[in-house]
Amino acid sequence: MRTDLTISCFLLVFFLLLTPFNAAASETNSDDATADAKNLSGTNAADTVVSQIIGASVYIEGEIYNNEYATISVTTKNEGDKSSEGHIIVAFPNNEEILSKEGSGDRVDIYPSGSSIETKDGTKIDSSEYLFVDLVKYDWETGKNETLNLKVKPNKGSEEIVYLVRAELMNDATGDYERYPGILSESSDVDQQGWYVYNNSFGVSGDPDLMIEDISWEPENPHENENVTFKVTLKNVGLASSGNCSVKCYLDGNEISFSTVSGLEADSTTSFTFNWVPTSSGSMDLKVVVDSEGQFVEFTEENNEKTGIFKVISYTNSSSPSSPSPGSGSSSSSSSSGGGAGGSPEPASNVEIKELAQQFVSNGNHAKFIFAKNVTSIAYIEFDPKKTVGKTTTIVETLKGKSTLVTELPTGKVYKNTNIWVGNEGTASSENIENAVVGFKVEKTWINSNGVDSSSVKLWAFEDEKWVELPTSQTDEDEDYVYYEADTPGFASFSIMALYPEENTEGTSLPLGSYVEDKDTKAVSETSEEESEVVDSEAGENNSGSMKKGLLAIGMLAAVILAGYVISRKQD
Known about the structure:
By secondary structure, the chain is an alpha+beta fold. The chain has helices at residues 2-39, 444-449, 515-571; strands at 52-59, 70-77, 83-92, 97-103, 107-111, 117-118, 124-125, 131-140, 145-153, 160-171, 176-179, 198-203, 210-218, 228-236, 245-251, 254-261, 269-276, 282-290, 305-312, 351-361, 367-370, 378-385, 390-399, 413-422, 433-443, 457-463, 466-469, 472-477, 481-487, 493-498.
């Protein structure tokens, strides 16, 4: 009896200890079973319709213009029995251009206008009125979707694209084609074959189309060193207003003018003028380009240029205005007025390399000097003249070291020291120009090798015997360079530089741009350590709890055994 009682006590203890864990497992298994039951829920019974178009949509990014395209996507589902053959047909009564076609069926065919087709009643048409596209699918399974995708370009001047949609599946029991059911049987729209169709359309915006209508100059037969006034006439022959755009003029490939033109209404015209002084005689290739920087979409870019021949006549020695008259006794030398060629006070021994650009500077015409050879760090300078100074030469110099014209350099990491000289002394003073900017570039290899942040690169100007940081912004970048633009009150000695790398509290030098990141990393590391301590603490608490549970179980077991022993002794 003692043995039976002892076994019963052991079984009681194990049952008590295991019951909570079995309950939890039972609860979890119950949830899983419920989830599985939901996942395996049945679907609605299939419809009895033979075919159903479940989507006929147009995907448009923004506004569609005449020289862009739209993607039309039509999806059809077989909701009846399996069919040996099915079709999705999309027709275009305005004969738009189909740029591409693709589909999930076995083949996609295009039937252009003029094709031989068959009508609903079996009549043959030798020349169809408009084109249509046909997706063919063999052995179309029940419940299977098929999709036809088309890229369509609007017709020139069109305000909308119209497309007609229908679908059909062969009923293998009767041999007849079941057409798109339901609402189409009540449709008033039919295609050229006589079948009911869905009539769909979407709007198309007209495009602007700028062209150079005319270019002329005065005097018609200019001489060298004579001021020439060019007149350029533009016209918008498109269907919509244009945005602001640039117009550039070139002679023998060299840019001589850059102008900005305000937006033009459809079928409107505008003109502008600019001045230029030829320095040599002969024939030059003239080219004017509108919207040269592609600032908006046009119907066609083919009429954006106009070319011609510009001839400059040479003065003879007897008629040259710069030559003295015989016997006049005047000096043979002459000086020209205007901005002039200017010069550089920097010693040639300190100049590493330089580049020149010329432009006719006149009041009311924005002046921009572009240094196309890219031999210095300066890409361009530009300003608005307050008065006309004529033909002007601008010089940019990259220096070997500090300019001899400055006392010291600003504090920072210098990329290049450079001088910019515009015309004669005083040509680019604040009394003569305004809104001046300098466009420059910095090599990425220099930025990376010196551990500086590209946003810390600034242009500094030496003014009134001191260095001044100019407002500088990053404008672009490519694989090799980062490009900047800085506002400047004038032109003289400059330094392109970046601030020295910051230092942390322990005096360790850190590159700009990584200081905050390093602090964040440190914070993350400290957080991770704190989380680790919390996890270890929780793990310790969990282990302690498990140990307590174990000791409790052992105590309960001992108590039961002792109670059983006492009871058995009393019974004996």
